[in-house]
Amino acid sequence: FRCKDCFGMPRCGDCLLEVHAGNPLHTSEGWNGSFWERASLLSLGAILHLGHGGIPCEIPSAQSKKMNILHSNGFHECYVEACGCVETDGVEVPFYRQLLRAGIFPATNKAPRTAITFACLRQCDLLMTQGKITGHDFYETLVRLTDNTGIDRPKEFMRIIRLWQHLHILKRAAVAFLPGGIASAAEGSCAVLCPACPRRFVLELPKREGNEDDEEAVDLFLLRWFETEFVMADANFRLRCKDRKITDLPLTDGLAYYVRYGPYKAYLATVGPQTEINVCDSGLHAVDHANTRGGSAYLASGVGACQCRHMLVRPNGVGDLQKGERYANMDYIIASSLRGPKPGRLVVSYDICCQWSINAAKRLPTLPEDICFSPQDLVFEGVIPKFHIAAHGKTCQSIYSLNYRAGMGRTDGENIERGWAWMNPAALSTREMGEGSRQDTLDNQWAAWNWHIIIGLDITLTKRLDEACLEATRHRALHTAFSKTFKPELVEEWSTMLDAWVKDPHNSPNPFEEPKSTISISDVRKEVNSEEAAEVSRGEIPLHATSPGQLIVALLEVEEQQRVITGLRDGVRDNKVNSRSLSIDDKDIALRRKIAILRQVQKVYMPGIVPLLGENSADDDDDDGSEETLATETPLYFPSSFPHSERSTVCAEGLAAMELRFRLAQAEETLTHLRKHLRVKGLVDDFKRENTAGTGQKANTRMRSLLDRYEGIIQRDAARYRAAWEAIVSLDPDGSWKERLLFLDKKDVRPIEKKKGQSEGHREHSWIWLSDPLQGAAAVREGTEALNEGLRAEWAMSRSRAERWEEEKEFVQAEMCRVLINFKARARWWRALPGRRIIEDDLVRAGMVSYAQRQAQIFEDLSKNFASLWL
């Protein structure tokens, strides 16, 4: 005989049993004369003895029996001999308890025939959270490892793993130490809490030196850095739940991340239907579809959730959605995640915050008593995540911007999207579960996610602080140098305007608002979207899921990326391989793939380009030959790329006219940007010449870097305008646009100020500075006034960048302080727990004390490790 789980040589049956006295769940094989075949240790006489550390009991119990035990290497038939000894109370230890003490989880506490080892359950739990495999897949894997088709215990296995995960959530939250047990556990008390967020019961506020006499400054400091709580809210419509017509209640009902089932459903029943009115000009449909998602086949159309600034899911911060993102659901979920004492300052990041926050002050106080609060009782601010805000209108892009609002640091608000990316692989399995089983599974997933984030905070916060220190210094220096290029009274005027806007962004003039060009790409895009929607409503089915307007916009974006990557590549020395050049190569590869995707859409709307696409060109991402052509050198084939005589045969009807509309807007918009960037570069150049010449290498290098940055932007603006102009000439050579959009020569790209040594009598403005090239000095004055407004916006953004990085530095330092304080407090909390509940059973009490000491040591070790890196 031989053992497949050991490295020993073949042995006789007696020797094999002797070696495996402590390992009865190994897989053994026997030689039948021709080959090795499975031979269980049970068939050789192996017995699993309980109660005496593997030694046979002198008075074995009548409960002894043959059992099916599932281990991490498969199924095993094993004879289990129970101990018949009695404890101090004169009662024999129940069989199921003996199994648990041996590290084996029985399927039932009454005459169990099936059990699973703790090692197997731990492995399954880890694979379910990390790899998102299903419990059924894990079970089937073990069945195949066993090569036994006669064992069929999937229901028992799924019940056990669910109960195992539930008990561990309770165990890690110290519920067993509560005098009233699980019945006395508070809502959300089993969630893994973020140690970097403000929690008043452990927070020790440090004093800030130098402001002892300025109470207002001290209060503002504490409010911003130590009393600010960030809540990132969003919905995920992949995490659905089918209506399986079964009654399945959650085990961890309201104890961890999900809101309590009963009160949540009762509140929604009182709200009734809500009409969500979308007054924002964003491209998002959360409000429009608030009452249209879902269906009778689903109990939940998705989930709404809240995370903190550090990506941890908040306690009681998750709830099922019945339709779309209705205010009633999201109000309850957000308020529930804030259960308990409220922070001094609350920042809610939500992709439709511009709509949700309008009447939030009226809705939130009407919630159930245990979670309701009034935003007017604290400093309440609503913002939109940085990626999502680009789809909103101009007004939202400043008022709700995390880049412009004070006290936000470098928070991007998109953390919850990263959490969804981690959770989404579990959607396919959880949607098939019962409602309660699904909630328990998701609670377990989020517990693993939160702990994973916590143990990585040492590296995460270190990187954030290093970056914040570097960028805060750099951007403050750049802003200081930039400010010196303007007159002091103008800077003071802009500062006053920006300060007023920061205090009241809804009712103050917007310093970030730039003068609007005649027409912008966003305007055209909005018009085209409306027209295409009207066509669909009339029954005109588009040729492809991507509309013609979306295709042109995507091609324009790719064209711009080609210019950006080309500029980056020009700044790298030839044949010099470094991290920057490799990064550029990665960008080129990503762009090549994007072009390959667009080619499939182009073939629908531009069938005439198919012969131009070679089999081994960059258009086919799967071909080896695609590596030979850079994405920046790949022709994009706009309608304007073809002569007028060929265009009708190459392109679908209306596509050329669509490009013309976008190209005209692109040219107008680019001219505005070009004028602004030329003015900025001219001011910086003047300041450098007058103030930093000869003052030292550091100052000159800084100003040179600033000049180089704007020179690159200017050249890209000029290239974009020329591309737009050439396309317009091809599409509409005799249009009225020729009166205002002229050819941009290299000599036309110059500041409005006269050149050095040039007399006023010989001074001549470039046509780009005229609001209308056919007008005279009046157009120059009009263009200059508009440009000053654009420079103010550039200055305001420059100051905001510097301030956000400085705030991030303060935020991260405060978070590091909180983490260390909370770890130490958590360790003290665990050590004090054994005295909270009287346990008569000596063995149980000893186990609870041991577990509490172990948990306390974990947090003490975390505190020491983090402190050694930070201090």
Describe the structure.
It comes from Schizopora paradoxa. InterPro entries: CxC2_KDZ-assoc, KDZ. Residues 42-150 form the CxC2-like cysteine cluster KDZ transposase-associated domain. The structure is a single chain. This protein has 871 residues and is an alpha/beta fold. It has four domains: 2-182, no CATH class; 232-455, no CATH class; 521-739, no CATH class; 817-870. It has helices at 13-19, 95-101, 118-130, 135-146, 154-172, 215-226, 261-271, 327-337, 353-356, 360-363, 394-399, 415-423, 427-430, 435-455, 457-483, 488-503, 521-537, 548-570, 579-605, 644-650, 655-692, 697-731, 777-832, 842-870; strands at residues 2-3, 28-31, 36-38, 47-49, 65-71, 74-81, 104-106, 114-117, 228-236, 241-242, 298-300, 302-307, 313-321, 345-350, 379-383. The strands form four sheets. Strands 4-6-5-8-7 form a five-stranded mixed sheet. It has a five-stranded mixed sheet with strand order 13-12-9-14-15. It has a three-stranded antiparallel sheet with strand order 1-2-3, with no helix packed on it. A hairpin with a 7-residue loop joins β7 and β8.
How large, in whole angstroms, is the Cα Rg? Answer: 34 Å
Major sheet: order of its strands? 4-6-5-8-7
Mean pLDDT: 83
Distance between the termini: 58 Å
The largest sheet, given as strand count, sense and whether it forms a barrel, is: 5 strands, mixed
Work out the oligomeric state of the chains in this entry.
single chain
Strand content: 5-15%
Secondary structure: number of strands: 15
Stretches where pLDDT falls below 50 for ≥5 residues?
Answer: 201-213, 285-290, 620-627, 758-763, 771-783
Q: Count of DSSP helices?
A: 24
